[in-house]
Design goal:
9 helices; Rossmann fold; alpha/beta; about 300 residues; 7-stranded mixed beta sheet
Amino acid sequence: MRVREPSPRDSLTHAVATFLAFAALGACGGTPAPRPPAAPADGSARAQPAQSRPAPSPGLTREGARGASREAAGSAVDTLRPTRRLVALGPPGVPATAFPAPDRPVAGITTDTWSDESTRDKAREAQRVMSLLHVREGMRVADIGAGSGYYTLRLSRRVGPGGTVLAQDIMPEYLEKLAGRVKREGLDNVRLGLGDAHDPRLPPSSIDLAILVHMYHEVAQPYGLLYNLLPALRSGARVGVVDLDRKTSRHGTPKLLLRCEFRAAGYRHVSTHDLAKGSGYLAVFEPVQASGERPLPHSIQACAA
């Protein structure tokens, strides 16, 4: 069979086709799309890239929200680092599974703010709470469940430049907002910390006082939270809880139930003070001094609501 010699017309057609192919390649970014990696020779599945999880939606409990936002929390930590106000979290404590579940409803997290700040200031809520807790210059205070930072800002001014406020929360988006507020206010004595719902993850022997304001009823694992808070308390440290005296399902904590849960986790009730109308009460606790009085996690029994 005779093979036809390519004509000048054939060469021109080939050149035009080649030119158009390279032009199309340039329009698509200049390089061909990469081929997917070949499967491993042993036939095992290749790991897929991690997908970012959505931020937790309002209404989650503090345990559920923390678990749902583990990857988002890491992102929030990276966001906060440039402020130089995020302290290294303490070592992990006892896992949540070691403690009994509370025998009462757990309210969902619905907002980072309890009431508006002007109303609370008119009632002098923060001033009275800080006075009853003897907050003074130079103290190291942990604001657990800091939210929008209502107490964080006021504690910062009270403890002064020689003191420190550890603003802790489990919700990354709350900490992101609070980081901006702290920066705008120029509060150099505030440190931000990301913890777990059952563990505040604070450095050992780091605080003189911890406060939990209008959030205790949202904690899905109160026994774990209180138990894992103990190592962070310095000698003579106390814990103050502000809440409403009503059922946890209605975003409050009955006084007797609160005392029972603290006692079960290794604390002693010191005092309870009624605040201005609508502000609830302040309950003060301290850890039992004798280590033999402190229960082991598996021996804790849930308090009846």
